[in-house]
Amino acid sequence: MARKLIYQVAVGNPPSFYEHCINTVRSYAQRHGFEHIVQRQPKLRIRPYRSARSREAVERLGYLPVYEKENAFAYLDRFDFVVVIDADVAIRPNAPDITEE
User: In terms of C-beta density within 10 A (0-12 exposed, 13-18 middle, 19 or more buried), how is residue 64 classed?
Assistant: First the structure.
């Protein structure tokens, strides 16, 4: 049986609706046999030299949260599938297993 992981990043005091979205992903993971990891603390804290994108996040946090998704690469040797899903994405209850589509 394939080992499957869903990885999400929710660092830096994200909006409250993220929790609803993360819970839909958690339910999806359970239905389809994925392990589910939500990174809540920054590890890399990468601050781009210049970033027109998300300047507010860089000023508020001192780093750009999108780069924290790079931490998912640490799991490639332990799983057959590593799926990175943004923390503000909700998955519908009838969504099929993406690894079978």
Answer: buried
CA dihedral 21, 24, 30, 34 (to 10 degrees): -40
In what helix (H) or strand (E) does residue 23 lie, and over which residues does it extend?
A: helix 17-32
**Per-residue pLDDT tens over the stretch 49-84:** 776 667 778 888 889 899 999 999 999 999 999 999
What is the reported pTM? 0.92
Q: Which residue has the higher pLDDT, 28 or 55?
A: 28
- For 50: left if phi > 0, alpha if psi spans -120 to 50, otherwise beta; the answer is beta
Which single residue is written with the structure tokens 């490639």? 76
Q: What is the dihedral of CA 72, 31, 15, 61, to 10 degrees?
A: -10
